[in-house]
Amino acid sequence: MINKLNLKSLSRDELVLFFKETGLPRYRADQLLHWVYERFAEDIRDITEFSVDLRRRLGGIASINGLRTLKRLFSEDKTEKYLFELEDGETIESVLIPDKDRLTLCISSQVGCAMGCRFCVTGGLGLIRNLKAYEIVDQVISVNRTIGPDRRISNIVLMGMGEPLANFDNVSEALWRLTSLLGISKRRITLSTAGLVPGMRLLADKAHGVNLAISLNASNDKARNEIMPINKKFPIRVLLEACRRFPLPPGRRITFEYVLIDNVNDSSEDAGRLAGLVKGLQCKINLIPLNPHSGTGLRRPSDEAVLSFQKVLSRNHITALIRESRGADISAACGQLKASH
Ligand code: SAH
Ligand code: SF4
């Protein structure tokens, strides 16, 4: 069998060059992009703007293969979870989260993750491999195709499996495609990182305007070292300095995610220290009670502990929202569906 070239693996310039070398005019490359990113074509045979002859000729040497949907699960709270298979048989997850005025897709950037955070299922897998740019973007294309023409994904969060800044080149190309080819505005895209400081600088340079979320998860280095090993390399002070330098467009804020874990980071002293750490930063805090999973020994705090943590932050004039993991009944927390597959 001939190993066909997947045209989605090419950048736009490479695609134009490929069409030129194949003896096809440039507008054919633009038509292909339109069919892939706006009409969500799955196969070159579906591109009816191409003649039957052209489809056959192109289909003989190239493909536009995407992800295979293995599972689509519906939660009682309207969250949908997708399990996708990649061309090499690996699997990744995406979660669709409908809200009043937006339809958000939470996408993965790696298969597994090297960061090893103790509370995270994906961290327990280790890094299996980076996703290619088209595998990141294809999560959006596949879900848009599945949900039909009446609904379109409006917002993207890079908060699925993997550490996006550890796969910067592919993520950066994916961000370009999401904004330029899928037409999703940068202000509707949020990248979440465990705190890779050099990657934050690159992000500010290459994708200025994308929203930044930081998984802080502790109020001092001792506790953060325990649950997020990356803190030994980029401790809280260094991370927060990088946040202060991060160029924010007017009116925008950095989001800090703080997974609340019983007896680890949930005391009122922690809340007070956290308030001190982020003082003066344009930011808001999302408090996420731990979604527990087996093998870690970590527990979710009581509701009272969560509420009093929030109260301390409010008293310090810091916006802090409690965010329950959506779709808990369908293993929607990061990595849980893959782990059970
Ligand atoms: N690697 C990036 C993005 C993926 S993790 C990062 O760490 O930011 C996305 C979010 O899920 C992070 O804020 C992380 O703290 C949170 N998370 C991971 N495991 C969780 C769990 N068991 N319960 C609640 N939140 C969890
Ligand atoms: Fe990786 Fe994020 Fe999970 Fe940490 S929380 S292991 S960085 S995916």
Report on this structure:
With 341 residues, the protein is of the alpha/beta class. The protein folds into 2 domains: 5-63, DNA polymerase, domain 1 (Orthogonal Bundle), CATH 1.10.150.530; 68-330, Aldolase class I (TIM Barrel), CATH 3.20.20. It has 12 helices and 14 strands. The strands form 3 sheets. A 10-stranded mixed sheet has the order 3-4-5-6-9-10-11-12-13-14, with helices on one face. β10 (189-193), α7 (197-206) and β11 (211-215) form a beta-alpha-beta unit. The longest helix is centred in the middle third of the chain and has 15 residues, at 133-147. It is elongated. The two termini are 30 Å apart. 40% of the residues are buried. The model has no long low-confidence stretch (mean pLDDT 95). The structure holds S-adenosyl-L-homocysteine and iron/sulfur cluster (SF4). The site of S-adenosyl-L-homocysteine (SAH) has 18 residues, from β10 and β12. Iron/sulfur cluster binds next to α4.
